[in-house]
Design goal:
By secondary structure, the protein is an alpha+beta fold. The chain has two domains: about 120 residues, Archaeosine Trna-guanine Transglycosylase, Chain: A, domain 4, CATH 2.30.130.40; about 80 residues. Helices cover about 35% and strands about 25% of the residues. It has a five-stranded mixed barrel. Pfam families: LON_substr_bdg. This is LON peptidase substrate-binding domain-containing protein. InterPro entries: Lon_prtase_N (IPR003111), Lon_prtase_N_sf (IPR046336), PUA-like_sf (IPR015947).
């Protein structure tokens, strides 16, 4: 368990569109670009073993290299190396953060100075969603999966606790990067579940991303 005092002021940034990491959830990643191999090597040398996932901002919001202001950092909890020098790793989400500024330096990857105070709840135990009506949610999810010809282990979903179910679906389902950002920034598990329901219902009605933004 991380405490607030354990969180570093500067983190290496992995900007990856559509890749969402949430606290206490696990994100598998395939690392092969030289700059991110260097980032991984450096991260493994630190006590925190931390990499920060963040969404690139859409063009027009600060330029081509702009980042969203909120991301989520994870600790490297599993990694294996392939024969050709690539890595398969798993990040376990620790806490969201807010970007203060991007730093320049000699590293081939990007780094940001961040602050964590706005997301102190992320360091606690699993979050609950008292208003969660699981049967209706699973019915909607089944319609959504059927519309995309997806399959899953429904028994596992029915037994998963609230946070694991909602956060895993938020990370797994194929929504647009801006939708993923909205799921990340949700202030509570209940709000994230409501956002997830809205996105699935909208997709089932055949709406487009542009319609949703408007």
């Amino acid at each position: 368990m991380f405490k607030a005092a354990d969180l570093p002021e500067i983190v290496p940034i992995f900007p990856l569109p559509g890749a969402l990491l949430l606290p206490r959830a696990r994100l598998p990643l395939h690392i092969f670009e030289p700059r991110y191999l260097a980032m991984l090597d450096d991260a493994l040398k630190t006590r925190e073993r931390m990499i920060a996932m963040i969404q690139p901002a859409v063009h027009g919001h600060g330029g081509e290299d702009a980042l969203h202001q909120i991301g989520c950092a994870g600790r490297i909890t599993q990694f294996s190396e392939t024969e050709d020098g690539r890595y398969m790793i798993t990040l376990t989400g620790i806490s969201r953060f807010r970007v203060e500024q991007e730093l320049s330096g000699f590293q081939p990857y990007r780094r940001c100075q961040v602050r964590w105070e706005d997301f102190a709840r992320d360091l606690g135990s699993s979050e609950k969603d008292p208003a969660f009506e699981r049967p209706g949610f699973l019915q909607l999810l089944k319609r959504f999966f059927d519309s995309r010809e997806l399959s899953t282990d429904w028994e596992t979903l029915e037994e998963a606790d609230d946070e694991l179910l909602i956060n895993s679906l938020s990370m797994m389902l194929d929504f647009q990067p801006e939708d993923k950002q909205a799921l990340l920034e949700a202030p509570s598990l209940g709000t994230r579940r409501e956002t997830l329901v809205t996105l699935m219902e909208f997709a089932l009605r055949g709406g487009t991303q542009e319609d949703l933004i408007q």
